[in-house]
Amino acid sequence: MIKATSPDRPLEGAQLWLVVLAIALGNFLVVLDTTIANVSVPTIAGSLGVSASQGSWVITSYAVAEAITVPLTGWLAARFGAQRVFIFCYLAFAGLSALCGMSTSLGMLVACRVALGLCGGPIMPLAQTLMMRLLPPEKQVLGTVIWAMTTLIGPIVGPVLGGTLCDNVGWPSIFFIGVPVATAGGLLLIALLRGRRDEIVKAPIDMVGLGLLIVWVGALQILLDEGRNHDWFASVEIQALAVIAAIGFACFLIWELTEKNPIVDLRIFRHRGFTASALTYSVGFGAFFATVVILPLWLQQNLGYTATWAGYATGVMGVFAVLSAPVVGQLAAKMDPRKIIFTGIMGLAGLAAWRTSFNSDVTFWQAALPTLMTGPFMVMFFIPTIGLAMASVDPGEEANAAGVSNFMRTVAGAFATSLVQTGWENEATRAQSAIAGAMPQGQATIDGMVDGGQSNEGAIASLTQLVQGQSVMVATVHIFAIIAVCFVAAAMIVWLVPKPKGPIDTAAAH
C-alpha cells in the first residue's frame, strides 16, 4: 500500500536552484570520493604503519560497497522514499567522512570507507531521479547536464584535489573537506523539501537476493580493483574471485527472476527500449571513462604535466557542455532522439580518432582542444540516452531503472579503468621491445653521444628515456584507436531501441 506525506507544492526561483545545487553537490562528493584518495595511499599507509598494498584497500573498500548499493536504489526508494533515502545518505556521508579523517588504524579507516560507500551508492542514481522529479520539463535538460557533469568531473578533480590537500594539509583533510558541504547540503534539503510527497511501498526484504548481490558484486569489484596488482588470472586469488563472481551472478539472476519481491527488479529489462538504452549508456560511458583515465596519465607520464595541469587539460570539457545543453534539449523535443545519440557518440569517436594523430610535441592547447570540443557531443550522448531509458519504463519503475542503469554504468567504468590501464602498460612494454629491437645502431648511437661529451651511463639513460617516451606514445595512440571503435559500437547499439512514438519527454523520469 502506498503512503504519502502531503501533496507536492511547486518549487521555483531561488528555492528550486538551491535544491538543484544541494543535490548536485551530493552527487559530486560521492563520485569525488572514488578517486580523491588514489594518490594519497602511500602517505596514508605510511601514517598508519601498513604497506602500500594494504593501504590500497582504502580505495577498494569504498568501490565495493558503493557498487553493492547502487542497484539497490530502486528498492530503497520504494521502501523508504526517494527523498528520505537521499537526505539520510547525504547526512550519513558527512558523519562517516569525518570518521574516516579521524581514523587511527587501517581497520577503522577501511570500515568507515565501507560504510561511506554504502551510503554513497544510492546518492548517484537518486540525484538523477530527484533532478528529473523536481525540475519543470523545460529545465530538465539543464538539470541532467548538471548531474552528468558532476558525475564526470568528480573523478578528474579527485586526484588533483587529493594530492594537493595531502601534500599541503595532511591526508585526513581529503575526508574532512566533504563534511561541511554534505552537512549543509543535507540540512538545506530537509528545509526546502519539507512537506513534499515522498511515496513509499511496504515490501518484504529479499535477504537471499541481497546476500547473492553482495557476494558477486563484491567479488567482481575486488577482481577489477586488484587484478592489475596481481597479474590478473596468473593469480590464484583473482581466479577464485572470478569463479565466485560468475557463480554468484548466475544464482542471483535465477533467484531475482523467480522471486516475488526481488531486491533488484530485473524484470525492468523486459523493456527493449530500456535494455538497449542502458547498454548504449554503459558501452559509451566505458569508452568515455577510458578517455578520462588515460588522458591525464599520458599528459603526466609522456608530456611531463603536473597533476594540476593535467586536470586543467581534461576539465575544460564542461565549458561547451553547459552552453550546448539548451540546444540539445530543443532538438530532443523535435526529432528522433536516436539520431541525436548516434551523432553525439560518433562525434566522441571522431575525437578519439583525432587523438591518434598526437605525438610527443603537442602543445597544451592542441591536447586540450579535443577535450574542449567533447562538451556538445557528450551532452548529445548522455542527455537523450538517459531520457530514452527512463521514457521506456512504466510509471513507478523510474527509481529502479535509474539504479540499474547507474549500476551498469558503474561496472562499465570499473572495467574501463582496469582494462585501459593494463592494456596501456602492456602495449607500452610491447612497443618498447619492438622499438629497441628495431635499433640495430643503438650502440653506435650511444657511442656518438659519449663522443659528444656525455658519460656512458648518461647516454644509456637518455636513449632509454627516449625509447620509453616513444613506446608510451605508441601505446596511447593504440588505446585511443580502441576507444574510438568502442564508441562506434555504442553508436550502433542505440538503433536497437524501438523508434519512439514521438519526441521523448524527459518528464517521463518523474
UniProtKB/TrEMBL annotation:
Keyword tags: Cell membrane, Membrane, Plasmid, Transmembrane, Transmembrane helix, Transport
Record flagged with keyword Membrane: yes
Segments traversing the membrane: 16-37, 57-78, 85-108, 114-134, 141-161, 173-193, 205-224, 236-257, 278-299, 311-333, 340-358, 364-383, 472-497
Residues of the Major facilitator superfamily (MFS) profile domain: 19-502
Chief localisation class: membrane
Compartments reported by the entry: Cell membrane
Classification via CDD domains: MFS_LmrB_MDR_like
Domain of life: Bacteria
Pfam families: MFS_1
InterPro entries hit by this protein: EmrB-like, MFS, MFS_dom, MFS_trans_sf
Membrane topology: Multi-pass membrane protein
Similarity section: Belongs to the major facilitator superfamily. EmrB family.
PANTHER family the record matches: MAJOR FACILITATOR SUPERFAMILY MULTIDRUG TRANSPORTER MFSC
Protein name per the record: DHA2 family efflux MFS transporter permease subunit
